[in-house]
Structure formats: structure tokens, C-alpha cells
């Protein structure tokens, strides 16, 4: 008998051939909690990875959403893409609150297997760079959730970005948040990125402003390509 790391009910693992022979890790979530998380699947925007099925028709042109078309007008010819694992719906918000604001880092074990699978598929050969928190937020929270998520992967991590602007994104209006400001981030000193291929790690992709600004900073230092991998993505 196991206990669900999220809701704490006791449950029996579903028996499959793979689990009987020890080929898959036992699940850390009960079946009900597992099924409450929605993995992004089907057709996605080629740039930002949002599920096209959940995107209003008027916001899609072919295989690209209008947000991304707008971003490509602001920053053309840049080699950027985002991929996300889960839809950021009510259940995922609950999960994220418990992880980030209640500091339940162990909860990450419930997503590690799927998270690694997405990374192996999309960007396993890229240098992993976590999105930094401001010094003040890091002090309040005690850990950087993006670094924790990066550490679940088996790649080389370079914690090379710092944040210049600590103003809370969530206190701004949508249009303010969408405004581009490549001055959000800076590189720690003495690091060369010429020709580097990088994957940024963050918890949630909302408007894309955070990861795209970080990407611009990295392009400015010579990175060849920048992807971002986020645990969840707004619909
Ligand atoms: Zn559960
Ligand atoms: Zn898009």
C-alpha cells in the first residue's frame, strides 16, 4: 500500500506488466490525483507549445497562435520555442501553490517522470539555465522553484542569470506585462555564450514575457538557440 504525496489517501498501485517487472517507478499519486492533471497533447502552437484545441479559433493562424506572431514581429529571426508539460488549470494551480508557496518540494516527485520525458524529447542536449528569482523573493521563499525543477533533469545546469528588476509581474496589467523589456535579466560576469544552445527552465508560462526576455539577454551574449521548458502553461 502507498500514500498519495498530494492528497495523502492510501492506494494500491495499478498492476501492469512493466510495474510487475520493476520497469516503471511506482506512482507517487493516487489515480484520482494523477487524472486531475492534464498533460498538453495533440496539436500545439509550433512556437509556444500551447494546445491549439483549447485556443479560441480566432487566435490561431495555421500552426501558430497570434501571441507568437506578435512576438515574432517584435523580435524577428530569433530561434526560440517554448514547450510545457501541463495545462495550468485549477488543479495545476493548486499543485503549484503547494509547491511554491507552502514549500512542499517533495511534491515534485509526482511530476519528475513526465517532466524528464518531455525534456528528453525536446531539449536534452541544451545547457539548462533556471530562471532566477529576485534576491527579495528568494529570501522570502527560501528556494528558487525553477532551480528545483531544473535539478529534476539529468543535464548540465548553469545558474548564470540574475534579475535586475524585482517588481512583481502579477501586479501589472496584461499590457504592461506584455511590454518588452530585455533589461529584466543580466548575465553573471565572465561567462561566454557564443554559439551555445540553451534551455531555460521556469514553473509557468503565462504571457511568455519572462522567458522571452531571458532569451533576449542570452541571444545578446551570443547564444545560438534558446528554448524554454515550463512545468505548466496557461490556456
Ligand atoms: Zn491523491
Ligand atoms: Zn504560440
Automatic annotation (TrEMBL):
<comment type="similarity">
    <text>Belongs to the ComF/GntX family.</text>
</comment>
<keyword id="KW-0808">Transferase</keyword>
<protein>
    <submittedName>
        <fullName>Amidophosphoribosyltransferase</fullName>
    </submittedName>
</protein>
<dbReference type="Pfam" id="PF00156">
    <property type="entry name" value="Pribosyltran"/>
</dbReference>
<dbReference type="InterPro" id="IPR051910">
    <property type="entry name" value="ComF/GntX_DNA_util-trans"/>
</dbReference>
<dbReference type="GO" id="GO:0016757">
    <property type="term" value="F:glycosyltransferase activity"/>
</dbReference>
<dbReference type="InterPro" id="IPR029057">
    <property type="entry name" value="PRTase-like"/>
</dbReference>
<keyword id="KW-0328">Glycosyltransferase</keyword>
<feature type="domain" description="Phosphoribosyltransferase">
    <location>
        <begin position="149"/>
        <end position="233"/>
    </location>
</feature>
<dbReference type="InterPro" id="IPR000836">
    <property type="entry name" value="PRTase_dom"/>
</dbReference>
Amino acid at each position: 500500500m502507498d500514500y498519495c504525496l498530494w492528497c495523502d489517501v492510501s492506494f494500491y498501485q495499478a498492476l501492469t506488466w512493466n510495474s510487475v517487472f520493476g520497469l516503471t517507478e511506482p506512482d507517487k499519486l493516487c489515480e484520482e490525483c494523477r487524472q486531475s492533471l492534464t498533460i498538453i497533447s495533440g496539436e500545439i502552437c509550433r512556437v509556444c507549445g500551447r494546445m491549439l484545441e483549447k485556443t479560441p479559433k480566432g487566435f490561431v493562424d495555421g500552426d501558430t497562435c497570434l501571441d507568437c506572431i506578435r512576438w515574432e514581429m517584435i523580435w524577428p529571426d530569433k530561434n526560440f520555442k517554448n514547450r510545457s508539460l501541463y495545462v495550468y488549470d485549477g488543479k495545476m494551480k493548486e499543485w503549484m501553490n503547494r509547491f511554491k508557496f507552502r514549500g512542499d518540494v517533495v511534491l515534485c516527485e509526482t511530476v519528475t517522470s513526465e517532466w524528464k520525458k518531455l525534456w528528453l524529447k525536446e531539449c536534452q542536449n541544451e545547457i539548462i539555465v533556471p530562471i532566477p528569482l529576485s534576491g527579495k523573493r528568494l529570501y522570502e521563499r527560501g528556494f528558487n522553484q525553477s532551480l528545483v525543477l531544473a535539478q529534476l533533469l539529468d543535464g548540465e545546469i548553469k545558474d548564470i542569470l540574475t534579475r535586475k528588476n524585482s517588481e512583481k509581474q502579477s501586479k501589472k496589467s496584461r499590457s504592461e506585462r506584455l511590454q518588452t523589456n530585455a533589461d529584466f535579466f543580466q548575465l553573471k560576469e565572465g561567462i561566454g555564450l557564443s554559439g551555445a544552445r540553451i534551455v531555460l527552465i521556469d514553473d509557468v508560462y503565462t504571457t511568455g514575457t519572462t522567458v522571452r526576455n531571458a532569451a533576449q539577454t542570452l541571444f545578446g551574449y551570443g547564444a545560438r538557440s534558446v528554448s524554454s521548458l515550463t512545468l505548466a502553461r496557461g490556456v
